[in-house]
Specification:
Blueprint (H helix, E strand, L loop, with lengths): L2 E7 L4 H11 L6 E7 L4 E7 L2 H10 L6 E7 L14 E3 L2 E9 L2 H10 L11 H12 L4 H11 L2 E9 L5 E7 L4 E4 L3 E5 L2 H4 L5 E4 L5 E5 L2 E5 L5 E2 L4 E2 L15 H7 L1 H10 L14 H6 L3 E6 L1 H18 L2 E6 H4 L11 E6 L5 H12 L3 E6 L5 H5 L2 E4 L12 H20 L5 H11 L2 H9 L2 H13 L3 E5 L3 H16 L3 E5 L16 E5 L6 H12 L4 E7 L3 H4 L5 E5 L7 H20 L17
Parallel strand pairs: 16-17, 16-18, 18-19, 19-20, 21-22, 21-23, 23-24, 24-25
Antiparallel strand pairs: 1-4, 1-10, 2-3, 2-4, 5-6, 6-7, 7-8, 8-12, 9-10, 9-11, 11-15, 12-13, 13-14
Length: 607
């Protein structure tokens, strides 16, 4: 999951290549580089670490040209140093690549036997050498590029400068997304439309196996058989301004604060204004007739699926299995022909989720995507899509996408219960009225930020932190722990409160912070009993509850975060917010980069 930009223009491209990279930095930030054709051939500048280092390198040793490619890397093969930074070059070829070339060792050996000398430990470098190999054998530039692509196995989105005096970009996609953008007197390629948003919104999405020759005023696309094809030009919906931090210090902070609007937008898309009943669209039939649902996702999206399981089973009576995509795709899952598979993903490009979806498509199952990125691969390849309308999420830690996923899952559970006649119109409307209060409830939850900020130093100093909950608050406990460890690098674990006595309670020592997520519901008193057990063993309790639950924690908890009363299905959605805030302020206290935590990337497009 690296980011790629390419520009062919009648103006200098360096500044915009770097601007495009900055917008792709969420995909990886181990190293960055650019290559341009400048009249004397291809010249490159590369630097380890974030794009700011590349900017310094470019200030110290400027280059520019009217055709160029750029890359921000999330390392897979080879350490994240300057040597392994893209673009990779061989003779008069430079390439940038996102993905993994699985047969790179064989290709590297073959090329080495033909005199090619490799400068990096990456899988990607073979691409540049292979194109040069074919050029050396007399092929023209396009033929050499296509001959190379033909030999690549694995996943790739790539852009290349072929020939050192050319105003042409070569591009190809297989397993990783790539778009072509249309400007005035210039053309672009990018890993996503978001990277190109400041330059153009007119984009064409390359399809699986497509390759493209991009010139200043035209693009020629071939499909995987080599036949020339026409792909539709679309207007991308992402606006440049949505990706700015505005008055916030960090994207994560901004995205936490955007949740009331994101939830209002998302809910409005699923409520029929005339009947006040759920709008299920194409998903209705798929979910109505399913004898079983399997919900598949990764990371935070998997945890939203886990909350969805509680809701769908309780309201519609349909059995739901949840599966981590990377596990699902490599076992032999027993699939039901009448089952429906749900794929939940912010990016719609997570490699394991995408592969699991293709597996289910091949098996003839109905597939539904709950997706934030409208033009993503999963959104395009599932039978039906339920969009989360969270807007672009840039911070690596998922916040508004998570709560928007929960809102869509709540509406799906209600829609299924309605279609199956398990809940009356009136019961459904009562649930929907409760969900419609989410913007107001989440605004109140955000107001707990001062308290969360005050608690942060406790978590920042702790050796480890635990999160516990029962029922729908169990996946929330896992999410609270994931959020904390992901952006603070502190050990944190989430447990089902009832499981503590089966082992984990041994880890509790004097002063261990335990975040107890227990708003009032039929399981709250049981969670309170578990809290008593650990408080008696010295745990420092941080309770997250509601006004009705507060009295249970009064003399037991060191800190009690009191949320407003949360009717119907709103509880887990609202309770997610103090968990996000606790992680955010702890990261702030420790000085870690919560928008770009170490070793991570926003969109995991390699398995
Ligand atoms: O784009 P996706 O929703 O498919 O991404 C799935 C996970 O990689 C993602 O939720 C990850 O766990 C987040 N960084 C957690 O905050």
């Amino acid at each position: 999951m690296c980011g790629i930009v390419g520009i062919v223009s009648n103006k200098p491209v360096r500044g915009r290549l770097v601007e495009g990279l900055i917008r792709l930095e969420y995909r990886g930030y181990d190293s960055a580089g650019i290559a341009v054709v400048n009249g004397q051939g291809i010249v490159r500048r590369r630097a380890p670490g974030k794009i700011i280092n590349l900017q310094t390198e470019l200030d110290n040793a400027p280059i520019d040209g009217t055709c160029g490619i750029a890359h921000t890397r999330w390392a897979t093969h080879g350490r994240p140093n300057k040597e392994n930074a893209h673009p990779h070059q061989s003779g008069s070829v430079a390439i940038v690549h996102n993905g993994i070339i699985e047969n790179f060792k064989i290709l590297r050996q073959e090329l080495a036997q033909n005199g090619h000398v490799f400068a990096t430990q990456t899988d990607s470098e073979v691409i540049a050498h292979l194109i040069q190999f074919y050029l050396d054998r007399g092929m023209d530039e396009e033929a050499a590029f296509l001959a190379c692509v033909e030999r690549l196995e694995g996943a790739y989105a790539l852009a290349a400068l072929v020939g050192d005096a050319n105003q042409t970009l070569y591009a190809a996609r297989h397993g990783s997304p790539l778009v072509v953008g249309f400007g005035e007197g210039e053309m672009f390629v990018g890993s996503d439309a978001f990277a190109l948003a400041p330059f153009t919104k007119r984009v064409l999405y390359l399809e699986e196996g497509d390759s493209a020759v991009v010139k200043i005023d035209a693009v020629q696309v071939r499909d995987q058989t080599g036949a020339l094809v026409t792909r539709d030009i679309q207007t991308a919906s992402i606006s440049a301004v949505m990706a700015e931090k505005g008055n916030y210090r960090h994207f994560m902070e901004k995205e936490i604060h955007e949740q009331p609007e994101a939830l209002a937008r998302t809910m409005a898309a699923y409520i029929d204004p005339d009947s006040d009943l759920p709008i299920m669209g194409d998903t209705g039939l798929l979910l109505k007739n399913a004898d079983r649902v399997v919900a598949i996702a990764c990371g935070t999206a998997y945890l939203s699926a886990s909350v969805g399981k509680y809701w769908i089973e309780a309201l519609s009576g349909v059995h739901v299995e949840t599966d981590i995509a990377s596990e699902f795709r490599y076992r032999t899952p027993a699939l039901s022909k009448n089952g429906t598979a749900l794929f939940i993903s912010q990016s719609g490009e997570t490699a394991d989720t995408l592969a699991a979806m293709r597996y289910c498509n091949r098996a003839g199952m109905g597939t539904v995507g709950i997706i934030n990125a409208e033009e993503s691969s999963i959104a395009r390849e599932t039978d039906a899509v339920m969009r989360t309308l969270a807007g672009p999420e840039i911070g690596v830690a998922s916040t508004k996408a998570f709560t928007a996923q929960l809102a869509v899952l709540a509406m799906s559970a209600l829609g299924m219960a309605h279609l199956r006649g398990r809940l009356s119109d009136e019961e459904i409307k009562t649930h929907i009225q409760a969900l419609e209060t989410l913007p107001e409830l989440t605004r109140k939850a955000i107001a707990t930020k001062t308290q969360c900020e005050a608690i942060a130093p406790v978590l920042a100093k702790a050796r480890q932190t635990f999160f516990i909950g029962r029922g729908v608050y169990y996946p929330l406990a896992l999410e609270g722990a994931l959020k904390l460890k992901e952006i603070t690098y502190l050990p944190a674990e989430g447990y089902a409160a009832g499981e503590l006595k089966h082992g984990p309670i041994a880890l509790i020592e004097d002063g261990t912070p335990v975040v107890v997520i227990a708003p009032s519901d039929p399981l709250m008193e049981k969670t309170v009993s578990n809290m008593e057990e650990i408080a008696a063993r010295g745990a420092k309790i941080i309770a997250i509850t509601d006004t009705a639950g507060a009295e249970y924690f009064e003399d037991r908890a060191e800190h009690t975060i009191i949320l407003p009363d949360m009717p119907g299905l709103t509880g887990p959605i609202v309770s997610a917010i103090p968990l996000q805030l606790l992680a955010y302020y702890t990261a702030l206290e420790l000085g870690t980069n919560m928008d770009q935590p170490r070793n991570l990337a926003k969109s995991v497009t390699v398995e």
